Amino acid sequence: MRSSPLEGRHRSLGAKMVPFGGWEMPLSYPSGTLAEHRSCRTDAVVFDVSHLGTLRATGTDAYHRLQQAFTNDLARIGPGRTQYTHLLDDDGSVMDDIIVWWVQDHSFDVMPNASNTDRVRDALRGIGADSGFEAVDVTGSRAVLAVQGPEARSRLAAVSPGASGVARNCVAPVEWQGALLTVAGTGYTGEDGVEVAVPAEAAERFWDAVIAAGIIPAGLGARDTLRLEAGLPLHGHELGPGITPLQAGLAWVVRWDKPSFRGRDALAAEREQGIHRRLRGLRIEGRRPPRKGQAVLRDGEVVGEVTSGNFSPMLEAGIALAFVPPDTDIGDELAVDMRGTPTTATVVKMPFV
Known about the structure:
By secondary structure, the protein is an alpha+beta fold. It has 9 helices and 20 strands.
């Protein structure tokens, strides 16, 4: 089990630590998940997301190697920008969803999910044989802090005006007290904010400064309820083996005008034939939270399955993501089998909040 450079800080704050993707990470702090969630929606919080991988892709062939691997098109952005993309398996399913930080001309930080870092690295190294490419796992050399919320930038400005000023979907180096940070205008909450890669030796100092600026620490529990309210997928739930970008409603991340990318042929065949299911958002009647794996019913028959479900702290109702038949439309009334009790669920437009 790996640990963050900030593990000691989390324990000193009374965090409940849990295993996640091969790491021991904070689930929540004494204030609790609901309070942390609401603080992100109304003020600012900081998450330790050091469990996310960082593969440093460098060399003269780096751009072309990533273009051959990923579904999105780096030609649509440039150095100093970020891009959400997918790495597909040969069958067109999503091996991982990734954020690419294009830091410099021939240097990219590829950010996989924690448990997929090795698989993504091996996939990148396996494409082509050009010697002008390296993909090095630098995850252990840094911490990553996600500062999120409507007041995230104003509060972070007291710590680092440079970091707070990095615009949405941009990435830039920022010097802070002798340490070189890499700051990206990205996040996973539906709120504004930045993610900051901090050298491991400076991580505790930077964390302390962020907390001193009045930014509330938040754990993985709030991160999950926030991303669910925002309708954002989680690998292993809405993405993974057997699930394609088209089924997950993420066709926009696939650039068909690229000459090739891994899994393209299988995905093109599905596009031609039509998907057999699609991801939809469900709002549940009452406060009871739905859970992953529960059956979705239409006229008493099982037609789908919940992939993620929880209580929405902002809506004060149960919400879920679920795979359902492709003809399911906004406003349709379904039901979720919640431990033997069919509970009314309305198909709603996402994001929920």
